[in-house]
Amino acid sequence: MRLIISVISFIFLSLASYARSEQLIFNSAEFSPFVYQENGKMGGPVTDVILLTCKKINVDCNIKQESFSKSEEQVKAGAVNGVYLVSWSESRAEWMYYTLPVLRTSWGFFVPATDKKDYLTLSSFSGHRVGVFGPSSSSKTLDRINPVVNMDIQLSKDDLGNLKKLIQGQLDSVYINRDVGLDLMRQSGLTDKVRFAWTHTERNYHIGFSKKTGRKLVNQFNKALRKTYESGEAREILAQRGLESVM
């Protein structure tokens, strides 16, 4: 009897060990309010959703902080399994699997709270002194549309500084990710001094997996990710930071 019990115990321990033998390594850069350092580790709502998903499929997940450009190199080479957050692009799809979208975000214009104008179209910002972080993808977006809109685009490396310039009357509007702007306003006590005026573009964000990661494991992760949204767990995590779920 003792021998049978010992054998059964060994089998269960072996199965548990095997079930936890899978590991996923993700890279991410700080991008508050989506991803940020928390107690010396990568945290934030999207990180919490990923760790919850890993737990559901009984996989150990290790998350490292890395620049997005370096992360792309490592994912492409298979040195790490994945990176987040990424938007869909045809070129990356050649070497990256995309998960279901984990959230939707938008880019647009903030104006001083004292500015009561209704901004209905892009042309409403014609003649504005527009602050934007740059050089960046956001500033390049403004450069592409500026021949039509005719704005005075002013580059800066300080998003919060741009919002403060709005209050001081040095800028007429700021072009920035809506969630990033609202987060900066909350942290800096500017919620009654600046407002979001108009959405220019929306984008879904995904987790990107290296195509050198087994497709079976990626599919398993994706199915579990969907379940975290269907159960409401992921939506609740995002909602606590005012973020919009796609699913």
Automatic annotation (TrEMBL):
UniProtKB keywords: Signal
Solute-binding protein family 3/N-terminal domain boundaries: 23-245
Pfam family, one: SBP_bac_3
Record-linked InterPro entries: Solute-binding_3/MltF_N
Superkingdom as given in the UniProt entry: Bacteria
Family (UniProt): Belongs to the bacterial solute-binding protein 3 family.
Name this protein carries in UniProt: ABC-type amino acid transport/signal transduction systems, periplasmic component/domain
Species classification: Bacteria, Pseudomonadati, Pseudomonadota, Gammaproteobacteria, Oceanospirillales
